[in-house]
């Protein structure tokens, strides 16, 4: 079952490796939280949990410096580790993270 907490995440994106924190707040089958890269933070929307699987959407700050990009995130949880993929307008990114 997905656990609440702070996960240190590395994401391999089409523009390079990025590091960030994902803060999970689990309430039954609902996943709230946010992504924090040290400069900006993006709240989760439409967050859901189904056993060890999770998904959410977030409006991330654009890497080009202005505006936001919509991201759809899906992944799995196992023994304090999360892994999954992020669908971005310009491709996909894979990520892993540890509590």
How is this structure best described in words?
With 99 residues, the chain is mainly β. It has one domain (5-98): Quinohemoprotein amine dehydrogenase alpha subunit, domain 2 (Lipocalin, Beta Barrel), CATH 2.40.128. The protein has strands spanning 5-13, 16-27, 30-36, 41-43, 45-50, 53-61, 68-78, 81-88, 91-98. A 9-stranded antiparallel sheet has the order 4-3-2-1-9-8-7-6-5, with no helix packed on it. The chain starts with a strand and ends with a strand. The mean pLDDT is 93.
Keywords for this structure?
nine-stranded antiparallel sheet, Lipocalin, 74% strand, globular, single chain
The H/E string reads EEEEEEEEE
CATH names the topology as Lipocalin
- The chain-level mean pLDDT equals 93
Please report which band the strand proportion falls in: under 5%, 5-15%, 15-25%, 25-35%, 35-45% or over 45%. Answer: over 45%
Q: Specify Rg, calculated over alpha carbons.
A: 12 Å
Tell me the name of the CATH class: Mainly Beta
Per CATH, which architecture? Beta Barrel
